Amino acid sequence: MAGVALGNVSKQYAHHRGSVEILRNVSITVEDGEFVSLVGRSGCGKTTLLRIVGGFVRPDAGSVLVDATPVRGPGSDRGVLFQQPMLFPWLTVLENTLFGPRAEGSYAADTRERAVELLRVVGLAGFEYHYPKQLSGGMMHRAAFARAMMVNPKIMLMDEPFGALDALTRAGMQQFLLELWERRRFTVILVTHDVEEAVLLSDRVAVMASAPGELVETIEIPLPRPRTYDVSESTEFVDLKRRVRQAVERARGGGSVVGADHARASG
Amino acid sequence: MNCGPGASRAGSSVGDVRAVPSGEGRAQRDPAGRGQPRSALGEGLLALEWSRIGMGLLGVASIIVAWWFAALIISDNVILPSPVATGRTLLHYLTRPYPARGLTLLGDTAMSLARILAGFAWGAIAGTVLGAAMAAVRPLRLIIDPLIELGRPLPPLAFIPLLIVWFGIGELPKVMLIGLGVIPIMVVSVVAALDAVPEEYIEAARSLGASPGYALLHVRVRAALPAVITGLRLAMGISWTSIVAVEMIAATSGLGYVILEASNYLVTPLIFSGIVLIAAVALILDGLLRLLRRLVAPMG
Ligand SMILES: Nc1ncnc2c1ncn2[C@@H]1O[C@H](COP(=O)(O)OP(=O)(O)O)[C@@H](O)[C@H]1O
Ligand SMILES: [Mg+2]
Q1: Between B15, B206, B219, which is nearest A117 by CB?
Q2: Is the CB of A134 less than 8 angstroms away from the CB of B208?
Q3: Could you read off the pLDDT of A166-215 as tens digits, one per residue?
Q4: In a domain, A127, yes or no
Q5: Strand ranges, E, within B65-174
Q6: Coil, strand or helix at A154
Q7: Are A79 and B207 in contact (CB under 8 A)?
Q8: Is A154's C-beta closer than 6 angstroms to any atom of ligand 1?
Q9: Which of B226, B254, B249 is closest to B117 using CA atoms?
Q10: CA B227 to ligand 1 centroid distance, Å
Q11: If exposure means fewest CB atoms within 10 Å of the residue's CB, which of A159, B97, B106, B287 is most exposed?
Q12: Of A191, A194, A261, A213, which Cα lies nearest the Cα of A44?
C-alpha cells in the first residue's frame, strides 16, 4: 500500500502581524493508485499541503502518513514535479535522468539502459545528449517526468505541472500523463487551477477553501477508465466540470484582508 | 530495490505508451539550432564563436588604427609613440633588461603575474569560504554583511601605506593587498550565487533520493558555480588595479614599476609596452576564466 493519509493537518506561518493560519484541520486519504486533484483559489494552501506530503515542510499539528508510515522528510518514494521542470541545466537529458539512481546509490548495470528506455517512453528518444535549454517546454516537462520515474516513486506530487505551458502543449501533456498513469497506476496528488484538467485526470477532486485553507468538498469523478481526451466532450464530463466549478465558487473562504493579500501575491 | 529486474520490467511495461508529439517537431525545425542533432549544433556554436572573435579583433584593430593616426598627427615619440615604435620597444626589452634595471619585460611580467596569482588565490579561497559560510549560517551573514558593506567602498589602495608599515616592502604586503581587494567581491558573488539557486532544485534532488549533503554539493554548489566564476572574473580585474598601484608605490619590479620608471625617464614607448603587456596578460587570464565558465555551464 502506498496511499497517503492526512489527519487534521494544520499549518501556520509567521507573519509581520503575528502568524497566519494557512491550513486548518485538513484530513484526506488518498488510496494506493488513486489519482486525486486538489483545486482551490490561489493562495489557499495547496502548495503548502503538497510540500507537507513531500516532507519539505513540517505541519504544526496533525499526522501525515505515507504508506502507513509517518513522513519525516523528503524521500524517493514521493516524486515531485513543479510548474517549472527544474531540470539541472548543467546536465544533459540523460544525465538528468540518471541523477536519482546516482544520488541514492542505486546505479546498476542496467540503469543507463533503463533511462534510455524511459526517455523513449516519454518521447525523447534522440534527445539524450541535449541540454535542457535545447528542449521545448513540453519536452522539458517530459524529461522531468522521466527523471522522477527513474527512482520508481510510488507517489507523484505535482504542483500545477502544466500551468506554464501553452494550451496545445498542455493538452498533449495531459494526454501523456493519462496514458502513463493508466499503465503504471502510481498514486497521484495533482494541484491544479484548471478544473477541466482535474476532471479529465482524476478519480476524485478535492476542493479547498482559502484563509484558512480547509478541505470543504470532495467530488468523485466516475468517468470510465481508461480515459482519453475524447471524454471531455461527453455531457457527463461537462456536468462534473460544472459541479467542481460550483464547489470552488462556494469555497471562497472568509477572505480576511491578510488572506486576500496573500492570494494576490501568490496568484 | 529501484534498480532490480522488477524495476526494469516496470520501465518497459509502459513502453508502448504513445509518445506525445507536441514539441519534438518544433525543436527539430527550430532555426536557432535548439534540438538539432549534436554535430550541427556544435557547428552552429563554432560559427557563432568565430564571428564573436572576429568582431572582437575588429574592435582591437580599429583602436590600433586610431592610435596610429593620432601618433602620425602628433608625431612626437614622447607624447604618443606609434604602435610600431611601441611594438619595437616591447620586443626589444622583452628579453633584454632595461639599462637602469635588472629585469627584462618578461621578467617583470612574470613578477606581476606571480603576485597576482598568489594574492588572487588566497583572496578567492578566503572570500569563497567566507561567502559560503555566510550563505549557510544566517547569524554569520548578519555579522559580516555590514563589515563588507562598510569596507567595500574603501579603495584597496588606501591600505597600501598601512600594509607597508605592518609588513614592510617585501612581497607580503602586495599579496595581502590583492587578496584584500578580492575578498569582498568573492563574498558578495558567492553569497548571491548560492542564494539564487532555486529551492525547487534542492527539493527535486531530495525527492530523487539525494541526502542533504549530496544535494548541497551536487546541486546547490554546482548550480552556483557559473555565477561564482563570474565573480572570479570581477575579482581578477580588481587584482590588476591593486598590483599595478602597489608596484608603483612600493616595488622595484613588476609592470607597475616599469611603467613608473619609464615615465620618470620619459620613455613613453616603454610605458605603452607595460600597458600593452598588462592588457595581454589580463586578457589571457580572463579568457581562461571564461573558458572555465563555459565548461561549467555548457549552454551559457
Ligand atoms: N514559507 C512561507 N512563509 C510564509 N508564508 C508562506 C510560506 N509559504 C507559503 N506561504 C503563504 O501561505 C499561503 C498559501 O500558499 P500556497 O500554499 O503557496 O498556496 P497555493 O499553492 O494554494 O497558491 C500564501 O498566503 C503564502 O503567502
Ligand atoms: Mg501553489
Answers
A1: B15
A2: no
A3: 988 899 899 999 998 988 899 999 999 899 999 999 999 999 988 788 88
A4: no
A5: none
A6: coil
A7: yes
A8: no
A9: B254
A10: 29
A11: B287
A12: A213
Query: Which CATH number do you get for residue A247?
Result: 3.40.50.300
Write the CA distances from B168 to A60, B160, B172, integer angstroms.
Answer: 61, 10, 8
Asked if residue A38 lies in contact with residue A208, where contact means CB atoms within 8 angstroms, the answer is yes
Non-local (6+) Cβ contacts of A172 within 8 A are: A138, B20, B21, B22, B23
Report yes or no on A148 lying in a domain. no
Longest dimension (CA), chain A: 57
To which H or E segment does residue A19 belong?
strand A18-30
| Edge-to-edge strand ranges of the sheet holding A78-81 | A78-81, A155-159, A187-191, A35-39, A204-209, A214-220
- Are A122 and B19 in contact by the 8 Å Cβ rule? The answer is yes
Task: For residues B178 and B115, give the distance between their C-alpha atoms in angstroms, rounded to a whole number.
Answer: 8
Q: How far, in Å, are A81, A127, A150, A220 from residue A174 at the CA level?
A: 14, 21, 20, 19
Closest CA to A89 of B298, B288, B236: B298
**CB distance A223 to A265 below 8 Å:** no
Q: Which residues of A touch B22 (CB under 8 A)?
A: 136, 138, 168-169, 171-173
pLDDT tens-place string over residues B17-49: 444 444 433 443 344 444 444 555 666 777 777
Q: Identify the CA nearest to A127 among candidates B27, B8, B31, B297.
A: B27
Residue B80: how many CB atoms within 10 A of its CB?
18
Q: What is the ipTM of this complex?
A: 0.89
How many CA atoms lie within 13 Å of A192's alpha carbon, on the beta-carbon side? 25
CA dist., res. B182 & res. B106, Å (int): 25
CATH topology of domain B109-249+275-296: MetI-like fold (1.10.3720)
Q: For residue A194, what is its C-alpha cell?
A: 484548471
Beta strand A61-66 with A4-15: parallel, antiparallel or unpaired?
antiparallel
Residue-wise pLDDT tens digits, A229-264:
888 899 999 999 999 999 998 887 544 334 333 444
Buried/exposed A108-130: b ≥16 CB within 10 Å, e otherwise:
eeebeebbbbbbbbbbbeebbeb
Q: Which domain holds residue A256?
A: 4-70+185-265
DSSP at B265: T
Ligand 1 centroid distance, CA of A205 (Å): 21
**CB neighbour class for B197 (10 Å; exposed up to 12, middle 13-18, buried from 19):** middle
Q: How many separate domains does chain A show?
A: 1
For chain B, domain boundaries: 109-249+275-296
